[in-house]
Amino acid sequence: MASGKLYGYGGRILRVDLGTGAVRTEPTPESLAREYLGGRGFVAKILWDELPVGVEPFSAGNKVVIASGPMAGLFLPGSGKIEMGTKSPATGLYGEGNMGGHLAGELKFAGYDAVIIEGVSPKPCYVFIDDDRVEVRDASKYWGKGCFEAEKMLKEDLGEDFKVATIGPAGENLVVYAVVSHDFGRQVGRTGVGAVLGHMKVKAIAVRGSRGFEVADPAGVLKKGKEMYEACFAKPGFDEWTPYGTAGVTDWVNEICAFPTKNFQTGYYERHKAINGQTLKERICILDKGCTGCPIPCGKYSRFEFSGKTYYVEGPEYETIALMGGNLLLENIEDVAYVNYVADELGLDTISGGSVVAFTLECLEKGVLTPAEVGRELRWGDPEGVAWLLERIARREGIGDVLALGVKKAAERFGKGSERFAMHVKGLEVSGYESRYAPAMMLAYMTADIGAHHNRAWAITYDAAVGQDKTEGKAWKVIELQHIRPLFDALGLCRLQWVEIGFELSHYADMFPLVTGWEYSWEDLLKISERIWNLTRCFNKREKPDFGRVYDLPPLRWMEEPLPSGAGQGRCMPRDKAEKMLDEYYSLRGWDSNGLPTKGKLQELGLGFVLERLKLES
Ligand code: SF4
Hints:
alpha+beta; Aldehyde Ferredoxin Oxidoreductase,  A, domain 1; Aldehyde Ferredoxin Oxidoreductase Protein, subunit A, domain 2; Aldehyde Ferredoxin Oxidoreductase Protein, subunit A, domain 3; 6-stranded mixed beta sheet; 17 strands; about 15% strand; globular; binds iron/sulfur cluster
């Protein structure tokens, strides 16, 4: 029911046309807020409504949508998440990622729930937002700079109180896994939002906000927020988890044979202790760094020496340790921190970037590529070689021009059987969990809308809890997680308080009506998350007419090569077993046998409008 006043929202959507330089604001539609909440929900609905069908990711028709959520910027744990989405140049499908830091709250303080960036600027620019003053400004002096350097320069020029997000050389050069970087170490990674901004010639977004926004029950929010912090601090996991952040999980992942090692050739790395969270803490971490409102800061800010020089970097966090540590056979935490720094400054995603480097090393190992084709000798475990290759990729020089397209397209280009070790689903490189001995995690990768990303469902703990060999009966858990975790992304929240220290979901359910004034139950919120999940699935079908089951298959390596070592030795996921998991998953979701939502399902979820633009069989 429309009431006119939006509590918990900035109340406006900002539209920036880079082609003309025009900016305008529109009221945030109450129906959009009620039906899609914010963040990921806004991104999905706006992209569905506004992108021309079949738009090229690198064209004037594509857009970047940046959105916070109703819980962002508030006095409650983890209220610092912002979403950015676009049609992905990495996959040609729905693309989106989130990051922490302090941009989400700042944007809402300036009075905006979302920013829609469209068109292509004739020259490098940045979007300047200072409450109602919005300008497209010249960015020539920042173009070509690294992410950290550009952020530092912009803060020096505009003032420390501006929150700044930048792209690096990788984004400028359209590397399809280029990130958007913020707060000197937080990134929107994976699906190439940074590359689309690079195509638009947008170097940065700088935001300062002072308008604030209202909540439905200010006293109730304060009281509940205080209670939430106290509950977080009292959790037994608080003291165990916080010192190491996500890196603390390294040994456990290795033990269950899920640690990506040597381009996922196996799931067990003998030198895991040299790059784990404890070693990070002891050797290089100098301070904890968190996002807006975070009681469990997972950012580990590090200082380290490499080749006689001192470097500073936020991290490495677990995914970087996995994809740029074990997966490249790097042997100590300083080496991992160094390549982490290089990737971050260039604006390259460390997960996809690590996977691309590992793929290249295996191509050399198997004779698919020669050192002459690559440009030099490269070997496993060599951080300087890794940094050299990352630089070539970000600059699109030599072999880097092909590697900038990701492992799927590089394998298509290189041939010679290299597709057998190109580790991706839907064209997106697999993140930090080898899954031949973790079927629920594999199913989560297979069915994630953006490709093989763990952020949609971290199901590996369920594998460990109910049996790593078991494949049947796990689909329901993957679906449950695929509704809970992305719900955080729609609300503007970090999920790690819940995931890592067991913070109860009921707290968020209690807080939501105090913020918005809407009496939604937790089940109501999950239903909205399911709506968004089905919408992005339909987006993928709309953009690729052949989209369906075949896009949900795991990498060939996982279907054909048994694990050679570790606790999961001998395990793999033959195609017929993978297909059976999909059958169970589709059936539970109310989708047809090709993995597409049925008309009935769409109607049930309030997505009947999808049928105007998408022809479905059943
Ligand atoms: Fe940010 Fe980490 Fe805290 Fe989440 S747990 S809010 S990502 S610092």
